From TrEMBL, chain A:
The chain crosses the membrane at residues 12-36, 42-63, 84-107, 127-149, 156-181, 187-213. InterPro entries: Cyt_c_biogenesis_CcmB, Cyt_c_CcmB_bac. This is Heme exporter protein B. Keywords: Cell inner membrane, Cell membrane, Cytochrome c-type biogenesis, Membrane, Transmembrane, Transmembrane helix, Transport. Belongs to the CcmB/CycW/HelB family. It is a multi-pass membrane protein. It is found in: Cell inner membrane. GO terms for cellular component: plasma membrane. Required for the export of heme to the periplasm for the biogenesis of c-type cytochromes.
From TrEMBL, chain B:
The chain crosses the membrane at residues 113-134. Belongs to the ABC transporter superfamily. PANTHER family: ABC TRANSPORTER I FAMILY MEMBER 1 (PTHR43499:SF1). It comes from Sinorhizobium americanum. Residues 3-204 form the ABC transporter domain. This is Cytochrome c biogenesis ATP-binding export protein CcmA. Keywords: ATP-binding, Cytochrome c-type biogenesis, Membrane, Nucleotide-binding, Translocase, Transmembrane, Transmembrane helix, Transport. The gene is ccmA. GO terms for molecular function: ATP binding; ATP hydrolysis activity; transmembrane transporter activity. NCBIfam families: ccmA.
């Protein structure tokens, strides 16, 4: 619990990078209308997909620092030694990371949805799927961050490692939004699968990340 | 309580960096590990702290509190890096570690303000850790040893970057920890000035 608040504090202090993800998200989504042109129907059709892609890339942005910063100042050593299960420590760090970087993306998405000429239903569905899906990206990312913890320039490597695993999240997130907007397709099945993916990685992610951290110790 | 180390060896890359290290430390005993650079002092301490795997040998604890199989669960490890966040204030850093580490059975830690006073830096705990000088940062990292109670202290070059006054202060901290029945294992180049202690001379590479 104290770890959760400490990590939140760190991410909002100078150099913490909580707002970097949101700024990146806004940049990506707000240039799309200029690139695509003033075709409102086209914009509202691709809107959910653009929001999801933007959110996915933005949440990958700060992941490499998740454990690297702890390793550089020696805090990771003390966490590895402590009798609290490392899995729990990793889980709490992921939760704090999501609250600092994932949650702002979810909050920003309705405003960016207006840029994309999306109606209320589509915006609502996007917010809901992002809320359910972005934790999965953080948990998957924790594994990549733990594997690359000892590498000095691991940032891009983490993204490349993580992206294939995050693709299902993107697919089911976007398809749930389209299912909500277009009549014949049902919303719930895709959304349930998205939730299942999140819960699955909430269990697997910390276990794998903890194992990777133990072996990276030097 | 008794810390037993038998026939310990560890590998760095291809070569054994040390082997056949055995010692036994009872409560209130200190071990000073000396040796030239690269002789494996830090590696030995990291093996004792459970951060590296030993190639062979055993580390065990006799007559310790129940429920602790590995001595590292009862240890403080002060490495080369201070394990404090530059962005947080000293007070926030110390109280985080206090809550995160918790106390081992048989003792309790000081609160952060008292710990800062004990290392002679009371009154600057409201500053971000990154604002302090290297020596002050090192002393604050020592305050971390005081906020949560651990019977075993594993210290890697604890007095690097410290002035003579802080050296004496630190010797006082170690002595009072020993008087309370603690165990101290320190790797150092300088004399710690803690009176009676066992010494272990590391010789370096063996092929």
């Amino acid at each position: 619990m104290s770890l959760f608040f400490r990590d939140l504090k760190l991410s909002v202090r100078a150099g913490g990078g909580a707002m970097i993800g949101v700024l990146f998200f806004m940049t990506v989504v707000s240039v799309i209308p200029f690139g695509v042109g003033p075709d409102l129907n086209l914009l509202s059709r691709i809107g959910p997909a653009i929001l999801w892609i933007g959110a996915l890339l933005a949440s990958l942005l700060g992941l490499d620092r998740l454990f690297q910063a702890e390793r550089e100042d020696g805090s990771l050593d003390l966490m590895l030694m402590h009798e609290t299960p490392l899995i729990l420590t990793v889980f709490v760090k992921c939760a704090a990371h999501w609250a600092a970087t994932g949650l702002p993306l979810v909050v920003a998405s309705p405003f960016l949805g207006l840029f994309m000429n999306m109606d209320e239903l589509a915006i609502g569905a996007t917010v809901l799927t992002l809320l359910a899906g972005t934790p999965a990206i953080t948990f998957i990312g924790a594994v990549g961050a733990a594997v690359a913890v000892a590498l000095p320039r691991g940032g891009l490597l983490v993204s490349i490692l993580v992206l294939p695993l995050a693709i299902p999240v993107l697919i089911f997130g976007v398809s749930a939004v389209y299912a909500a907007v277009e009549d014949p397709a049902p919303f719930l099945p895709s959304f349930m699968i998205l939730m299942a993916i999140t819960l699955f990685f909430a269990v697997i992610g910390p276990v794998a990340a903890a194992a990777a951290l133990r072996h990276s110790a030097d | 309580m008794r810390l037993l180390v038998e026939g310990l060896s560890a590998r760095r890359g291809e070569d054994l960096i040390f082997n056949g290290i055995s010692f036994s430390l009872a409560a209130a005993e200190a071990l000073v590990v000396t040796g030239p650079n690269g002789s494996g002092k830090s590696t030995l301490l990291r093996v004792l702290a459970g951060l590296l795997h030993a190639e062979t040998g055993r580390i065990s604890l006799k007559d310790g509190p129940a429920g602790f199989e590995h001595p590292h669960e009862l240890s403080h490890y002060l490495g080369h890096r201070n394990a404090m966040k530059r962005e947080l204030t000293v007070e926030e850093n110390l109280s985080f570690w206090q809550r995160f580490l918790g106390n081992s059975p048989g003792g309790s830690g000081l609160d952060p303000a008292a710990a800062a006073a004990a290392i002679g830096l009371a009154g600057i705990t409201h500053l971000p850790f990154g604002y302090l000088s290297a020596g002050q940062q090192r002393r604050m990292a020592m305050a971390k040893l005081l906020v949560a109670y651990r019977p075993i202290w594993i210290l890697d070059e604890p007095t690097a970057a410290l002035d003579a006054g802080a050296d004496r202060l630190f010797a006082g901290l170690v002595t009072s920890h020993l008087e309370r029945g603690g165990i101290v294992i320190a790797a150092t180049h300088q004399a710690l000035g803690i009176g009676q202690s066992k010494t272990l001379q590391m010789t370096g590479f063996s092929h």
